């Protein structure tokens, strides 16, 4: 793939433009419009918009029949204040691109420029700009969209920039790469009372105190083992912020995390059982809800093979790094319906702030590196 100096200058400018106007999950309408406009200039055969929300897909067909290969980037930013000192920092209060999705979009746009100049010999390439990755809803919504069936790929590839790794180095494994996770909200309802007569009410506080260590006791195994399970309490609340009322309600919010989807089901049922048992001892009403649900992300060996070939051809060093990660990534949702997926981590520099830190900024040097890897996959698979 040959990107000119002018290409790189324009792609960096475009990435920084996106950086200034981040939109959070489910609200990416203006970002999607910007992406669709830029894609149109590269001459795809078809652009599909509003996929699973605000998703955008561009299709570039080859000259002969062959497999369909998809490359994914994310549209959404975060509800984090941008505290960086760069001149292109976010102009939207309380919103930022501290996960680097702006850079992922620029990488796919670089690939789009390459495809505009040289189509694959066979098959087709799909560039997927996916909504709502950060809350785990986006990939599933795209796959559930009826129009996705017309562009469903045989293979799908993605990367995530990763600070703490040498710039440009790749981490890649065959098998699990990120964990399944879900947010769990357990709400207890009892009965308020005057603070001087708490015995006349039904406070959830004793039950909350009993449940906390029991939930933590569900954690098991090492991060790389199939039995890995982790519970992390993220929020606790009981009653009102007053001194005269004994509480009649309370909540625990926690994140459930496992290496595999099957293990998640057991962890979920165990956590629900504990909540119901604790509530039943004193007659509390319990309600359980879930949000931010991420499936596990498992790299297919066939997809990894093509990715490794591309890295070898580009002379880019790679190893297993710290994979699999305990974090979650909803790219795995594209692999649940038969598509063979592979995701890798691309080093963003060892001294760079971590992902989701308020001063994180995607390194522009990765745009060209990521695009070269993706283009090499295209040429290796489709000619």
TrEMBL record:
Needed cofactors: Mn(2+)
Keyword Metal-binding: yes
Cofactor note text: The Mn(2+) ion enhances activity.
UniProt keywords, alphabetically: Hydrolase, Manganese, Metal-binding
Classification via Pfam families: M20_dimer, Peptidase_M20
Hydrolase in keyword set: yes
Domain Peptidase M20 dimerisation: 182-274
Annotated protein name in UniProt: Amidohydrolase
Organism in which the protein naturally occurs: Ciceribacter ferrooxidans
Lineage: Bacteria, Pseudomonadati, Pseudomonadota, Alphaproteobacteria, Hyphomicrobiales
């Amino acid at each position: 793939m040959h990107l000119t100096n002018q290409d790189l200058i324009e792609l960096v400018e475009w990435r920084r433009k996106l950086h200034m106007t981040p939109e959070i999950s489910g609200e990416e309408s203006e970002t999607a419009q910007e992406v669709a406009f830029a894609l149109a200039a590269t001459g795809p055969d078809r652009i599909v918009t509003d996929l699973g929300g605000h998703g955008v897909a561009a299709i570039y067909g080859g000259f002969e029949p062959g497999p369909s290969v998809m490359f994914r980037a994310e549209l959404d930013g975060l509800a984090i204040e941008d505290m960086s000192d760069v001149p292109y920092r976010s102009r939207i209060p309380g919103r930022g691109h501290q996960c680097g999705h702006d850079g992922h979009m620029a990488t796919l746009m670089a690939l789009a420029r390459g495809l505009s100049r040289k189509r694959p010999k066979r098959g087709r390439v799909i560039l997927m700009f996916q909504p709502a990755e950060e809350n785990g809803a986006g990939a599933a919504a795209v796959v559930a969209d009826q129009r996705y069936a017309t562009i469903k790929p045989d293979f799908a590839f993605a990367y995530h920039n990763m600070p703490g790794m040498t710039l440009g180095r790749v981490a890649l494994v065959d098998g699990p790469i990120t964990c399944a996770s879900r947010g769990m909200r357990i709400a207890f309802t009892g009965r308020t009372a005057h603070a001087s007569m708490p015995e006349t009410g039904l406070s959830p506080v004793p039950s909350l105190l009993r449940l906390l260590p029991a939930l933590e006791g569900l954690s098991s195994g090492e991060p790389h083992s199939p039995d890995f399970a982790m519970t992390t309490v993220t929020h606790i609340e009981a009653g009102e912020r007053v001194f005269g009322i004994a509480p009649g309600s309370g909540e625990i919010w926690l994140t459930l995390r496992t290496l595999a989807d099957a293990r998640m089901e057991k962890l979920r049922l165990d956590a629900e059982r504990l909540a119901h048992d604790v509530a039943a001892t004193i007659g509390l009403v319990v309600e359980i809800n879930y949000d931010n649900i991420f499936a596990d992300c498992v790299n297919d060996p066939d997809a990894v093979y093509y990715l490794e070939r591309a890295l070898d051809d580009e002379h880019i060093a790679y190893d297993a790094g710290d994979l699999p990660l305990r974090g979650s990534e909803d790219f795995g949702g594209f692999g649940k319906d038969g598509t063979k997926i592979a995701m890798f981590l691309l080093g963003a520099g060892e001294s760079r702030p971590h992902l989701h830190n308020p001063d994180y900024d995607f390194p522009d040097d990765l745009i060209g590196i990521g695009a070269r890897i993706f283009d090499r996959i295209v040429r290796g698979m489709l000619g």
